[in-house]
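Morning. Coffee machine broken again, so started the prediction first thing and wrote up yesterday's gels while waiting. Chain of 568 residues, entered below exactly as on the submission form.
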Amino acid sequence: MAERSPAAVGVANESGDKPLTAHADDATADEATDLSEEQDAPQETLPEETAPTRNAPPELHSGHKLARRYRLEDCLTRVDGFSSWKAFDEKLRRAVGIHILPADHGRARSVLAAARSAALLGDPRFVQVLDAVEENDLVYVIHEWLPDARELTELIAADALEPHEAYQMVSQVAQAMAAAHREGLAHLRLNPDAVLRTEAGQYRIRGLAVAAALRGISSERPQREDTEAIGALLYACLTQRWPYAEDAYGLSGLPKDVGLVAPDKVRAGIHRGLSELAMRALVNDGATASREPGPCATPEELAKAVAATPKIRPPEPSTAPYSRTTYQQGAYRQSASHPSAHVTTVLPATPPPALTGRTGRALKWSVSALLIAAIGLGSWQVAETLMDRENQSKDGGTSTAPPTGGGDDPSGTAQLTSGKPIAITGAKDFDPLGTDGSENPRDVPNAYDGKPSTFWETSWYTQANLGGLKSGVGVIVDLGSVQRVGKVKVDFIGDDTSADLMAASSGADSMPTGLDDFTKVASASGGQASFTPGTAVRTRYLLVWLTQLPRTDQGNYRGRISEIKVSG
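Came back before lunch.
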């Protein structure tokens, strides 16, 4: 499709006035009228000091009004000769965004042309340009303001997007940019600040053509530039890392000596198909990994690749809390022990009528008899237990009551017998860059099931030090309660394995979620590693932290644990 000429189009403003090109036409007509009126008038030469001069652009500040309707409120950006504002349209009673630059700015003409071209697209997936005006020595572009939308920068700063949400982002953005390029429009500044997500889950792109024009950016390969930008967005959504060596948009870049690493090698547990899509969009010189299909060089190709990816199901909605019936809640009394933000008034229910007559009396006597029998049986069992304990005490035996603890553990929760095995009651994989473990969580029970033939393994990495992407990965084991730990033996598969043993505070009442919650207590390496803390360790949670991984037969690096044994 032939690329439309943006300079030849005019745009009607939001209030339905004449096209924006009418400003220039009106000025030309006025000049012609003035000239005809002054043809017969005597010519007068003005002194040099009284010659008319060009008015300077007005000083902009909060409260300044443009076109007698747009009141400036907050300055968002002031750089490179232009400024961006949040403003209020007093005529239509709504918030808008405005880009402003002097009319004699070197890029003023190109900004006007880009804004008018973007306005003609009319695609709802883009933040719409509402008006583009040259007035009072200023050029300003009015665009939509989406109060309920959040920047992608903000979303991924909190956490990586879950697979379904990342799929929705790349699908919607790729399709929108494919439509823009079919009309000859490029973005060239497509970054996490330019992508917004509304509360309805729709992704909107702002700054189409205009953002690049404001900064004087152009490209000989605009489709490829925008495709790589979409790949970078997807990469950031999956990993919370920027896929280049520089830090940007609040995200850490990749290590400089590593190069571009696939997302599922940066962060374990990432959806394989999405990881491949990011690489196909980012690496457009054909240097993609052998397991990936060919690169995508245009947004159209990327949109088709996304559509060909098997659909990713949304996460299951959280189960609604169990709601008891009026009778179960007890209509005769109200409890305030669990206040709620949403209080439902329960009307008192009428209790069921009592049984009358011979049937009712028989039922009452039966229930009474059962209660008396239960009380008698319980009293007999308690008395028998007390007599047994008294007899054992007289005979010099030991009491069967559990110990109450001693030493420096007044709570009595620590195991004080040295050298005895301590059972592992649960375990969880741990990845410092992951939110839910994400290092093969289903295989974790194999690390303590007592079977040497089964094992848990990490994801694979390109280097023994986990590619320089993280300091380690591992398994957190739960001992069930605070225990005195004397030794931990770990059977690794691979003699080149190095690891640390880390312990959580004895006061931790839930499984820690961050590496800062653990303290290193011992180190070991080799296939049969034995960790012996230098001082007594009392803890419920231990972390076997792998810092160096052995090489596999496939040429990559991954760690494997076949058995973890803890003793007091």
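The two ends are 76 Å apart (CA to CA). Going to sketch it on the whiteboard this afternoon.
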